[in-house]
Amino acid sequence: MANPTSTVPEYWDRYASGVTADSALDGAFGWTQWDDHGPGSELLQGPATALELGSGRGVEVAALVRDGVKAEGIDISPLQVQQARERWEPLGALFHQGDVCDFLAGTEQQWEAIYSVWGAVWFTDPGVLLPMVHDRLVPGGRLVFSHAEPVPGSQGPQGMYGGGFRGRRVWLHQWAAQPYEWEELLHTAGFEHARVWVEPAPEADHVGTLIAVAHKRQ
Question: What are the C-alpha distances in Å from 84 to residues 59, 88, 165, 183?
C-alpha cells in the first residue's frame, strides 16, 4: 500500500504523538538521541528568551518555560504544532506553524538563544538559514544545534524520499558537513567562537551526535 504522505508538512505530521505527563519534562532537554547522555540545556547558558527551530512536540520549549525562560518554537507540521499548543501553551509556551526561513524573514524579534534539537538546521540550506539566525539573535546571543554525526565522505544536501520508494514524490534534504565545515559555515554567516564536535555514543561503534555552539558578536 502506498504511503499517504504527499507534502513535506504531512511527512512531519507522522512524527506527532501526544506527551501526556508533565513529568516528561524532567529529562526533556538533551541534544543526543541517547537517553541521559551528553550535555543538556546548559549549552544555552540560561537565556531569558529562546526560539527552537523545528520544535516538533514542543517538549524542549516547555521545559525551558518551566525553568523561567520565555521560549517559543516554530515547526512546519500543523499536527505537531496543534498538539504542542494543546499540551504546553497553558504553561506559557508559544508555538508557530510554518517554514523557519519564512518565519525568521517575517519577524523583527530577536532572541538570546536560538536552537535546534535534530530539527530545522539539519533540513535547511545553511547558506540561507545561518545568516537569518544571526540577524535574529541579540548581540552576544548564541546558536546551538544538533543532529546525527555525518556519514564519512558526505557533504552538502543529501536527498531522501519523504513518502518512501512506493509513495508520492515528496523529497527532503538533510545537510551533511564535517565539524570543521560547520565551523566555516558559521564563521561565514558572521558567528564568533564557533565550536562543533561529535559527541560519542554511549556504546562503541554506535552513531554519535554532531553538536554546534556559536555566538553573535557582542
Answer: 8, 6, 30, 32
